[in-house]
Amino acid sequence: MRLKGFTAMLRYFTRHRWLLGLFLCTIVVEVAYAVASPLSLQYLVDDAFAPKNVRVFLIIFAVLIGGGVLHIAASLLGDYSLGKLSGEGIRQLRSELFDHVQKQSLPFYERYRVGDLVTRFSSDMASIERVVRASFPLLLKELLSVLLGLAMLFSIEWKLTLAVLAGSALMVVGPRLLQGRAEAVHASYKEAQERFSNTIDEMVKGHRTIKGLHLQRRFRERAGSQLRELFAFGLKQHMLNSLMERLPLTALLILNGVMIGFGGYLIFQDEITIGGFMAFFTLFLSVGQSGSNLSFLFPSLIESGVSFRRIGDILEARPDVPEAAKPVELPASFGSIRMDRVTFGYSAEADQLRDVSLKVAAGSYVAFVGPSGSGKSTALQLLSRFYDPRQGAVSIDGHDLRTVSEASLRKLAAPVAQDTFLFNTTIRDNLLLGGADRTEADMVEAAKRANIHDVIAGWPEGYDTPVRHEGGSLSGGERQRLAIARALLRKPKLLLLDEVTSALDPATEADINALLLRLRGAHTIIAVTHRLASVVNADTIYVFRDGAIAESGTHDELLQRNGLYRSLWEKQRGFHLSQDGLHATVDVDRLAKLAVFEGIEPSLLRDVASLFSTETCKEGEAIVREGEEGNKFYMIVRGKFEVAKLVPGKGENRVAVLQDGDHFGEIALLQNIPRTATVRALVPSVVLSVRREAFHRLTEEHPQMLAALERTLRQRI
Ligand SMILES: Nc1ncnc2c1ncn2[C@@H]1O[C@H](COP(=O)(O)OP(=O)(O)OP(=O)(O)O)[C@@H](O)[C@H]1O
């Protein structure tokens, strides 16, 4: 059992020694009074009432009143010290948990989903709070009452005490037998709660996609089955808890019978006085009550044990990318950043980067390009130190990033990702985030440089416009430009850009590319992109293939080399897109390069080119669905699509990613067969498509074209 959460709590308590001491003293006073008052019955009956001795009665009465006043004072002090102690403890545990989660690196956030963490902060913390404020103090009180009460009972009549103690074992054995099962059921209930929280999280975050793809029913069914699961575990938990609570009470009833029978016998034998028996009986009832209270506490203690363990799991998680003990503070500027023979894998099973070495000099503009999944973004993540290499090193001016302080690295280098996260606050706060030394003028200048100022100024509330749904209320282009403005505002020397223009229309993309060209020199820019047209001006282009660098050089050098870059370039060229991104065309010589149109004369290809029409796709939109009849051939002008196949019992499995210049669905030109996979846009995309019917009209006029096409496609089916 991981006790980190529990020991952290104890540590907070011991930091407030005097409060803890005061609280323990008040408990002792309260319990002593509660145990001693039944004992007074023995003296009242035997020494005051039976002999009618008023003096003894008055003395006992005065002692009882005095003790009562002391008891009330101790309770008030106890409540105060407990309130302060537990409040502080909970506050510190919450903030330690918060800090700890914040310190974690990316793999941690990939391991835990939002719901898993939210449940720890909400329901686990609430159950710990309940225990610390109520159950734990009660446990102490009742334990002490039982121990003191038993000592008193022994002093009154040891044989009777032994008899009832033997019976009391029943009260403890029952709950213990059930404890293991109760713990397991409680843990299952919490996991079911987590699954449901994650569904709510996805439903809220993905509400657009859910509505867009009409997935409400699927989500309703998922939530329905999770709620049924919650109900089943909840019922089990309820029944086990009730059983654990009832068992000791039943045992107590049996014990009462034993005590009255055996006690009566002892009175008749003159082994105990009537007052002694009354005191014994009252005290035993009070000890029994405390014992049964203890058993009532078990469920909440078990529940908190699970919560302590779950919070302990988080507190024990060590950051995968830790800060060095004595980190090097990087200066405000740098000379070069390098990767030396870097090998890295997200998991132990596979390497996503293999033996990658590269050097980027300050002030240069460097691009990482290559097919999808080749490791470009991964390399950028390592340069941002979101992960550490498995082998080799990433360094700035000779300082291994593992040895430098995170704060100084973030000051120097600003990453901008393709999925921009904006906080639910105003545009101004999103831009100024944490930069207390940034002025309004700095902010406006950064927004102007990122070409977003005019847009913001046009909104009724300007920079005070609130952002909703983590940026979902803004267009992809607006989000992207805000992210760039936010990065520029921090005045970083190194900009690490991951596909920042992937969601933009051609006009905005051209603006951003022009901006990058203006920034070069003053800033070092490393940009990951799959769109080669945007990097022709880069100082160095690194071409990635299967996690390694296949080639590098300038655009012209790489074209001359006739390697991977050249083939990617050939694939992407020949398309034309209007500035608003709504109308696309393809050149005849680009069509001629497709295997599917091999052997078709250029004059006919001109007619084919004119048959294509432009389609735009939203992020998440499926343009081809597995199993549906296909009647269109597609070419991607710009964008990114996943190709996914249904695996029975497991859902969809991504088998490929297609990008600018790729094509799919050519079989549909020839015959009507169901699609073998679903093709879904990963970013807003533009495609050119041609329908079989339109194509057939052309092939009817030119049968030689159909013959050529059939020849090629038959070879591929
Ligand atoms: N967080 C992650 N956990 C596990 N595997 C990952 C993770 N991120 C990326 N990968 C895998 O690592 C490989 C390289 O991915 P990476 O994103 O670096 O490629 P890329 O060249 O940038 O491709 P793209 O242009 O599609 O983003 C891919 O196989 C990808 O599935």
TrEMBL record:
Cited PROSITE patterns? ABC_TM1F, ABC_TRANSPORTER_1, ABC_TRANSPORTER_2, CNMP_BINDING_1, CNMP_BINDING_2, CNMP_BINDING_3
Extract the InterPro entries matched here. AAA+_ATPase, ABC1_TM_dom, ABC1_TM_sf, ABC_transporter-like_ATP-bd, ABC_transporter-like_CS, cNMP-bd_CS, cNMP-bd_dom, cNMP-bd_dom_sf
Q: Where in the cell is it found?
A: Cell membrane
Any GO CC annotation of this UniProt entry:
plasma membrane
Residues covered by the Cyclic nucleotide-binding domain: 596-716
SUPFAM superfamilies assigned to the protein according to its UniProt record, in alphabetical order: ABC transporter transmembrane region, cAMP-binding domain-like, P-loop containing nucleoside triphosphate hydrolases
> Which residues does the UniProt record annotate as the domain ABC transporter?
337-571
Alphabetized, the UniProt keywords read: Activator, ATP-binding, Cell membrane, Membrane, Nucleotide-binding, Transmembrane, Transmembrane helix, Transport
Query: Molecular function terms in GO for this entry?
Result: ABC-type oligopeptide transporter activity; ATP binding; ATP hydrolysis activity
Q: Does the keyword Transmembrane helix apply?
A: yes
Q: Kindly give the membrane topology term recorded for this protein.
A: Multi-pass membrane protein
Designated name of the protein: ABC transporter ATP-binding protein
The source's superkingdom equals: Bacteria
UniProt domain ABC transmembrane type-1: residue ranges? 22-303
Which residue ranges run through the membrane?
58-77, 134-154, 247-268, 274-302
- Read off the SMART domains from this record: AAA, cNMP
What main location does UniProt list? membrane
Which species does this protein come from? Paenibacillus flagellatus
